[in-house]
Amino acid sequence: MDTTPKVTLAAMNMEAADPVRLAEFWAGAVGGVLSPGPEGCMILNSDAPGGLPMFFQPLGEGRPERQIHHLDLTVPWGTRESEVQRIVGLGAERKWDVLDEVPWIQWTTLTDPEGNLFCLGEHPPAG
């Protein structure tokens, strides 16, 4: 019997005070095609191979005091700063940069328009 895990990540689900606005932000940030879902929800289907679909639904309760997970996104080396500026132009807020903690990545931590943390990192070329 094969016991190798067959589990893969299918989508990122997010509750939002304004699912349409948040889905539009993320579509601008990572690309993809938006479509309406059931009962005020929005679906962002990736148009890139291996991209991550996202599902946005109305916030069921008040926002938790502390965020316990966040997305780590990556861009090619040398493009992080321009991508940060582009995403800030879409409505993100830059929180902090981590440029010298470890040699294999530099990243910027941001929040989306509803205050959800995410990071945008770049890895130096090998060699």
TrEMBL record:
Going by the entry's taxonomy, the superkingdom of the source organism is recorded as Bacteria
Give the matching InterPro entries: Glyas_Bleomycin-R_OHBP_Dase, Glyoxalase_6
> Gene3D superfamilies of this UniProt entry?
2,3-Dihydroxybiphenyl 1,2-Dioxygenase, domain 1
- Show where the Glyoxalase-like domain sits: 13-120
Xref: PANTHER family: CONSERVED PROTEIN, HYPOTHETICAL FUSION PROTEIN
State the name under which the record lists this protein.
VOC family protein
> What organism is the protein native to?
Nakamurella alba
Lineage of source species: Bacteria, Bacillati, Actinomycetota, Actinomycetes, Nakamurellales
